[in-house]
Amino acid sequence: MDIFKEKQIRYTMPGMPSELYGKILNEINYFKGSARECNNYLCAQFPDVPSLTLGSIYSLEYQRRMKRNHPKVAASAAKFYDRFQEAVNRGDEPGIILRLAQEVDISPALLARMILEQHYEKLAPEVAVSVSKSLISRKMKDTTLIEDRDVAYEIYLSTLNDDQYGPLADVGKHSLGQEYELKLQRIAKDLKLAFRGEEHLRLKGYDKTPDIKLDIPIAVDGFMVNWIESKALFGDEEGHRGYLKDQYLSYWNRFGTGLVIYWLGYLDTIEQVNEKKIIVMSDFPSNITVMDPKCIKPPQL
Question: What InterPro entries does this protein map onto (predicted)?
Answer without folding.
Answer: CDIN1
